[in-house]
């Protein structure tokens, strides 16, 4: 819808000239020659921007400006042929966005209006975002970290469009909550949100689950059934674990996404729906494409607005915010007299790697509350966390050098052969990356190729090891 501009100008020739300046922009205009007409037009025309002359036959234009109240008031550009510094300052204080002195050139006129309208759009976007984001929460997502703020901003920007959102992240990072936030922030919020886990449905039934079927279409089809696509009409269809979908069904999904039309199993009739797609996977979709398990054309059709959810270990103090929220929520469910966590509990939570992410944290919180009736949660009440590094410092053997920090646990120190400090000649010197590579590879081998476990023992993030493996491959290429 084009912006609406109210021109408040008592000189008819100038009002017509201003209208002619705006004809190429496609903006809708209306003229008011007096202050009284302007006040009526503001309420009835509901302009996005007002071009306001100061000297009007029945009142001062600044009185109209001062009467504008409310959060959604229009932008105002003050026009005058008798500009003074004091008048400009007063106009800005009263809420004007700009101040133009007559005569006004067409280009300057249009640029000023465009800038004011852009500022209005920006203010509305910020207000909309602030209304949704409160106390570290964005709908059901929790966290105030910079990385999550970035996620919230992407969701907020993408929500109003129909563009497909493609969410990636490790298992347990909250991909379905992210998908729900996209839906809740969109104009479709009052319409259905339908989630379908492609990994949880047998390959032979997933087409029926998505598109529905007619009675008798296959053995066991005893009645007509509307699929997820039909249920989500007007709303959002969330396809979780999309990379698990059978390659043969992906072509039908691609056609559905392109046309909005599908056929129920056993029917020749096409059904058309209005659906917004949100997809998620805990795999690397490009690797799945390269391996031939995921169609490349489907990937590029769906990968429009990517959202990467960070693992819990990379979210800093968000861990405590989420834990507090989970303790409060689950304590109500379990009728538990919870009041708070001890600092020792917070310290352990902050320093643990959380390979299972938020799902693992939630299970830990529930276990703690169910098995302990105390109001304050102490460290000895928290169940043992698997692969938790031992904080005791490592005492190196005489004449040996460790390749990791002094807080590496004893268990980790035992997984590799120590490296001698003594070198008999220059030919024995090896590049540091080769030594580090051998050390880490031995740790991974002794952990039975479980990289997250090896990373926990080495006191680094699994993503660090994955990056190092990639860099080694490049060095050896």
TrEMBL record:
InterPro entries: AAA+_ATPase (IPR003593), AAA_lid_NorR (IPR058031), CheY-like_superfamily (IPR011006), Homeodomain-like_sf (IPR009057), HTH_Fis (IPR002197), P-loop_NTPase (IPR027417), Sig_transdc_resp-reg_receiver (IPR001789), Sigma_54_int (IPR002078). Residues 4-117 form the Response regulatory domain. Keywords: ATP-binding, DNA-binding, Nucleotide-binding, Phosphoprotein, Transcription, Transcription regulation. The keyword Phosphoprotein applies. Transmembrane segments: none annotated. It comes from the Bacteria. The keyword ATP-binding applies. One of its GO terms (biological process) is phosphorelay signal transduction system. Residues 141-370 form the Sigma-54 factor interaction domain. The modification 4-aspartylphosphate is found at residue 53. GO terms for molecular function: ATP binding; sequence-specific DNA binding. This is Sigma-54-dependent Fis family transcriptional regulator. The lineage of its organism: Bacteria, Pseudomonadati, Pseudomonadota, Gammaproteobacteria, Alteromonadales.
